[in-house]
Design brief:
The complex is a heterodimer of chains A (about 450) and B (about 475). Chain A has about 450 residues and is of the alpha+beta class. Helix content of chain A is about 25%, strand content about 35%. Chain A is built from ten helices and 20 strands. In chain A, the strands form four sheets. In chain A, strands 1, 2, 3, 4, 5, 6 and 7 form a seven-stranded antiparallel β-sheet that branches. Chain A has a five-stranded mixed β-barrel with strand order 8-15-16-17-20. In chain A, strands 11-10-9-14-19 form a five-stranded mixed β-sheet, with helices on one face. In chain A, a hairpin with a 7-residue loop joins strand 12 and strand 13. Chain A is globular. Chain B has about 475 residues and is of the alpha+beta class. Chain B contains eleven helices and 24 strands. The termini of chain B are far apart. The chains are: A alpha+beta (about 450), B alpha+beta (about 475). The interface between A and B is large, with 80 and 77 residues.
Chain lengths: ~450, ~475
């Protein structure tokens, strides 16, 4: 912790004391500061350079069981006083809520191990080098094949953030995190200047807490180019029921849907198809789902959650059995359970629920072996649209990918949808790949769903 | 109004001379163009769940974004501190996108023309907080009273008041005061068997709080959300495959937003990465289709007096009788392609670089009787309401999710259908429009459009429309 954190921690603690003096019975204050940097290049030329920072404070105040909140980007003493006044005033207007409140004192705390979330070298990487990483990724994509005729560019993004949290029950903590990524977005075309043919875009990226952990920009560009190229000439297929393979990038989105179905808010409101299913077998033996906010260097890790509760490892689904929901203090109290350290909030409003590193345990088979086992099926490489209903479990999304014939990727497919229901899908996972990698805070290996409806012609 | 009485001058002591100095600094390294976007945003939000006012939040954020253009390059920096040193620093950082001697030696700022599409005397955010809580409580009560099968009602109310000042090196300063309010109701209902079903409705605009008293009431939104949830209790699985699809009027206009609107944003077209690139003058829709983007409709959620680059918004014809007429421009694209401004440069906040964005996008009314359109369909799907949509602008493929739809059998609406995604290809799908109703309706004011991580409020609208061929992603 450095002097900047000390200063912000002091601001947060002062805000807490002020609110108590104004009549609050419990208070918590979050301060976030961030610097963002983005270099975007396109067709070899620098296109955009963005470099700036900002900060803000959020306050949650309880008067008994009534809660109000406020925020400000003005951290001067006047700005803070105004924020305190506002939250105390609003607490007077809300309804008594028997479950509202801060965490119990024994639940507060933070991990003591260094999670290695911050890299000073990354924060200080010279602008020229950042631009060069973006240029190299795009150049590799453009050079990969003559059909890569255009590009939405290459980019290097970097952010450095600080989080400070203090409450009236004695918690005070701060941590810093850095993040950087390289992305390439090439466009492939087989139009040859005519109106015939198609144009397709895809992307690939690498991300890390420390820039030395990034994959090399050339491989990012090449993979992005391969992905765009294999989409060329995509057609619709006939409507049919077939096995569907989700590549890891897509399998992640399915985990995102499941997160919404296991987070405490949707559970206590009975707005999830998994509400009331704790202890039940809801998926196959090959499905184990874990949330773990304690893994060093990963993108979903932090020493404490946004209510000052230490993060932990929670097994959500163990070999198909629903073992735990993901909870903050409020939803835990509603359900008569204990918080799982999953409180998440920005500067405004109240704590919601977020995940740490949310991932599925890998299986034994390589993705190639899984593919080889499919005679006729669909390998999905992109999903679009929001057609997932976690209340009912209904699932219907636009899909792009490759058709599988006799164990091989035969031809590209687009403008189709895949549909089923989430309960059927997680019960019907036929294969789980061995290829789990942490590219973001949600991670999954290759998955094969036994049967889904592909709608096309 | 004298400059010294304008919001930022009055509240923060900013002078015209200061603005000229910041712009000069921004152009000190040889940039071609610079602008300053000052923003002061006050927001309030209320949420009711289980009939408890669970959250009430208020807050303020402010800052300034400095942008410099140099050829096709953009330099951007911002500050959440309006002190002269911090703004000069941001201007200095943004200036670094260019390298060379300054090309502009003196900037003299004049005020742009003013108009007011939302003459709101008392913004909702300046109304007593308790009044706004009461409105939300009314929605909760009405939702629960609608039907005994309703078991959860969640009401959200949010408003904001954004004060904006845009100063450009072209020598113009524009000011705007942008009020916006929205109410949303989410309902869950459960029958004697089967899973719970959801319904949602919401709306608002750039109005005074009385809008929710006189135009669209909390009861209206609550009943509509509850009605949708109840309808879904009897829904059957959606069909799979190509169908005749009829879109109901209003919010289903999101089809235009996804299928056409995004693909016509000038940044994608300048770069040649849109499925619509280079197709001006070509037939991209059936001759029955005329699609406009209009940022000038009084009080609408997507309307603005000036866009976030200081240009007045306009009514722009995108597709006229099926022929592609124009793109949506921001400053960067219009400078590069020498196109006229269309007033579509928008950004989420001072932290964001402006981009070409839609305002209120809709299809003009046709001549068909809506009932006749439905009667004309032997077998198909009628979509009354949608959730979100998305488009891949390069391939042109778009999807949108039908949250309330019905089977059409022998020209009649029969059973309700569960959630299904509809998918099509932008430049192709609209060619299958075979009937356009005379019942153009704009949505009630809920739209949020996301692009490259930036969200902005938008509006959509459409009359009843028959599309002869579209893929429906059901399971039956």
């Amino acid at each position: 912790m450095d002097t900047a954190d000390d200063f912000l921690l002091e601001v947060a603690q002062k805000a807490v004391r002020q609110a108590i003096a104004k009549g609050a019975t419990d208070v918590e204050c979050t301060i976030a500061e961030g610097e963002e940097f983005s270099a975007a290049v396109r067709m070899g030329e620098l296109e955009t350079l963005k470099d700036a920072g900002s900060r803000g404070a959020g306050l949650r105040v309880l008067i008994g069981r009534k809660m109000g909140s406020s925020y400000t980007s003005d951290l001067t003493p006047e700005g803070i006083s105004q924020m305190v006044e506002s939250a105390v005033y609003l607490a007077g207007l809300t309804t008594e809520d028997p479950h509202a409140g801060l965490p119990d004192a024994e639940d507060l705390g933070k991990l003591s191990a260094d999670l290695e979330l911050f890299s000073n070298e990354t924060a200080n990487l010279p602008t020229e080098e950042r631009i060069s990483l973006a240029k190299r990724a795009e150049a590799a994509a453009l050079a990969f094949d003559p059909r890569i005729t255009n590009s939405e560019g290459g980019s290097f993004d970097c952010s450095v953030s600080g989080r400070v949290f203090a409450n009236s029950r004695g918690f005070a903590g701060a941590y810093r995190a850095s993040y950087c990524s390289i992305t390439a977005v090439p466009v492939a075309s087989d139009k040859n200047g005519s109106d015939q043919g198609s144009m397709e875009r895809d992307y690939w990226f690498t991300m890390a807490r420390d820039y030395r952990g990034l994959e090399d920009p050339e491989s990012v560009g090449r993979i992005a180019a391969q992905r765009a190229l294999r989409r060329l000439g995509a057609t619709k297929v006939d409507t049919q029921n077939v096995p569907v393979i989700f590549e890891p990038r897509i399998a992640r989105s399915l985990l995102g849907n499941l997160f919404e179905a296991v987070e405490g808010r949707s559970i206590y409101r009975n707005a999830s198809f998994l509400a009331g299913k704790l202890g039940e077998k809801i998926a196959g033996d090959n499905f184990t789902l874990i949330d773990d906010g304690t893994i060093p260097r990963l993108f979903g890790s932090s020493p404490f959650d946004d209510e000052g509760v230490p993060t932990r490892r929670t097994v959500v689904i163990d070999r198909g059995v629903l073992k735990s929901y993901l909870l903050n203090v409020y939803t835990a109290r509603k359900l008569g359970m204990k918080t799982t350290g999953n409180a998440s909030r920005g500067i405004t409003g109240n704590a919601g629920i977020g995940h740490g590193n949310f991932f599925m345990q890998p299986g034994e088979k390589s993705p190639e072996d899984i593919l080889r086992g499919v005679k006729n099926g669909f390998y999905v490489t992109e999903l679009i649209g929001s057609g997932v209903n976690t209340v009912t479990g209904d699932y219907s999304r636009g899909a792009v990918g490759m058709w599988i014939k006799d164990g091989e990727l035969a031809f590209p497919v687009s403008e189709v949808t895949i549909a089923s229901t989430l309960p059927r899908m997680i019960n019907g996972i036929a294969e789980v790949g061995s290829d789990l990698e942490f590219r973001g805070s949600v991670s999954a290996p290759t998955l094969m769903i036994g049967e889904m409806t592909v709608a096309g012609r | 109004m004298a400059f010294s009485d304008t919001f930022f001058a009055f509240k923060f002591g900013i002078t015209k001379r200061d603005l000229e100095r910041y712009l000069s600094e921004a152009l000190s390294r040889g940039g071609d163009y610079a602008d300053l976007y000052f923003e002061y945003l006050a927001t309030s939000s209320i949420s009711i769940d289980e009939s408890i006012v669970k959250s009430a939040t208020q807050g303020v954020s402010l800052g300034v974004g400095v942008r410099v253009l140099s050829g096709e390059r953009t330099g951007y920096a911002y500050s959440d501190d309006l002190s002269p040193e911090k703004i000069m620093h941001a201007a200095h950082v943004a200036a670094l996108i260019a390298s060379g001697p300054a090309k502009v030696d003196k900037i003299n700022l004049d005020e742009g023309k003013r108009r007011n599409l939302y003459p709101v005397l008392t913004a909702p955010s300046d109304t007593a907080f308790r009044e706004r809580v009461k409105l939300a409580e009314r929605a909760d009560i009405a939702g629960r009273a609608y039907d005994p099968r309703v078991f959860q009602v969640q009401v959200s109310y949010a408003d904001n008041l954004r004060q904006v000042m845009v100063a450009t090196s072209d020598g113009v300063i524009n000011f705007d005061r942008q009020p916006l309010a929205r109410m949303g109701v989410f309902v869950l209902a459960k029958g004697s068997e089967g899973s719970p079903q959801q319904g949602h409705a919401g709306g608002g605009g750039r109005h005074e709080l009385e809008f929710f008293e006189n135009e669209l009431t909390p009861e209206h939104f609550a009943r509509e959300a509850a009605r949708q949830a109840i309808v879904q209790l009897d829904a059957v699985e959606a069909p799979a495959g190509e169908q005749i699809v009829v879109l109901g009027p209003g919010w289903p206009g999101i089809l235009l937003h996804e299928a056409v609107g995004h693909g016509l944003e000038a940044d994608f077209n300048r770069k040649g990465v849109s499925a619509f690139s280079g197709r001006i003058g070509q037939q991209v829709a059936s001759p029955l289709c005329t699609v406009v983007d209009d940022g000038t409709i009084a009080g609408r959620r997507g309307s603005l007096n000036v866009d976030d680059e200081g240009n007045p918004t306009e009514r722009n014809v995108l597709i006229e009788n099926g022929i592609l007429r124009g793109y949506l421009q921001d400053k960067l694209s219009s400078r590069i392609t020498k196109a006229a401004a269309t007033g579509n440069g928008r950004r989420e906040s001072y932290e964001h670089i402006p981009m070409p964005r839609m305002t209120n996008t809709f299809m003009l009314a046709g001549e068909s009787d809506p009932a006749e359109i439905i009667r004309s369909v032997p077998r198909g799907l009628y979509c009354a309401n949608f959730g979100g949509g998305q488009v891949d602008i390069t391939s042109g493929n778009f999807v949108f999710s039908a949250s309330e739809s019905y089977l059409i059998e022998d020209g009649k609406l029969t059973r309700p259908v569960r959630n299904a995604t509809l998918i099509g290809n932008g430049p192709e799908a609209m060619k299958y429009v075979s009937m356009v109703g005379h019942d153009l309706k704009l949505d009630e004011g809920v739209g949020v459009c996301g692009k490259e991580g930036q969200s902005v409020p938008v509006g959509v609208g459409i009359p009843t429309v028959r599309i002869d061929r579209m893929t429906v992603g059901g399971t039956a």
